[in-house]
Amino acid sequence: MKVRSELTQVQPYQPGKPMEELRRELGLSHVIKLASNENPYGCSDHVKRALEAEIQMISRYPDGAAYQLKQAIAEYYGVTMEEIIVGSGSDELIGLVARTFLQPGTATVMATPTFSQYKWNATLQGADVVEVSLKNGTHDLSAMLAAITLETRVIWICNPNNPTGTYVNHQAVEQFLQQVPAHVLVVLDEAYAEYVTAEDYPESAKLLATYENLLILRTFSKIYGLASLRVAYGIGSSSLLQWLERVREPFNTSRFAQAAAVEAIRDQVFVDRCRKVNKQERDLLQARLEALKWRIYPSQTNFLLIQLSEGDDDLAWFDYLLHQGIIIRPGTPIQAPGTIRISVGLPEENQRVLQVIEQRRLPTSSKME
Ligand SMILES: Cc1ncc(COP(=O)(O)O)c(C=O)c1O
User: Fold this and answer.
1) Which of 23, 187, 174 is nearest to 91 (CA)?
2) Do 148 and 216 fall into the same domain?
3) Most-buried pick from 26, 40, 140, 188 (CB within 10 A)?
4) Could you identify the atom of ligand 1 that is nearest to the CA of residue 219?
5) Which residues surround ligand 1 with Cβ inside 6 Å?
6) Which domain holds residue 64?
7) 210-228 confidence digits (pLDDT tens)
């Protein structure tokens, strides 16, 4: 067999270790997963009721155009339905962008470290991937601008950035957009936007009227708590989206995903509650981890990236925590060696992970307890 040459450049995606797998491997009854930035509080009760009702329609194809969901999203943002595309997770939308714009001979610019799927999709398309290092833990927008060439088709800004949790503000994004040539699409991946409390975080939807080359990606997988349903959306000009629609699968989101997402976006009380408690818990986690003399990236999200001490091995920390029944994300496979990424969990989960970390990091003080 002779596969496409691009396939030799990529590896299958390595997700956060599933809880079921660790339970099986270690024979544990209880496992804490803090590896995939999921919402530990689940989802809105309205979503659960909508899912139950949708079971009646299980034998019928979903609405490929996701009319009701687009209507709910359009209402929420004050945009038209033609400015919305719905995807099976933002993973799919990232893939659609790559399939629409990237091919051999083109280039794409992204930060490093950042969310791995931009590079994976671009590499599969055979495009040149230009990676620009973060500066002080955030996107270096001027270096990214300088990396643009005539071949550049797409620039990816993960805001807040995964894995650092850091963000670029409204003014910086607007100044950046002013300087990006019109032939280059700017993708603002805002998967964690609903967790942000910083007041100068971009109001990116307001920029759409001026910049036709802007695509905003949002997901229902994070604060809305629908990760297993696979549903997300993009907002951009209708002239841009009509191209993405040409590469979208006809029934890319299920009935369940659409019905759930309609209720999810309408229940902003749930979202506000999750944002608030997440910040409280994140601040607590951060303070205790900093007391261990670790540097923590300033996060606006539901995860923290921890810079370990010199010579400390992230894979060893991952293994240690795994054997205590806690799954986190080591930095090595996500281009951030020497770091570990921990999602903010339930209060009792956060207490447990801190206790286990302190036991290894402060062996003498834990003996005294
Ligand atoms: C920055 C970012 N974008 C996109 C995704 C993909 O999310 P989903 O495909 O579940 O919408 C993730 C998931 O972790 C992410 O961190």
Assistant:
1) 187
2) yes
3) 188
4) 11
5) 37, 89-91, 115, 158, 162, 189, 191, 219, 221, 227, 232
6) 45-266
7) 999 999 999 999 999 999 9
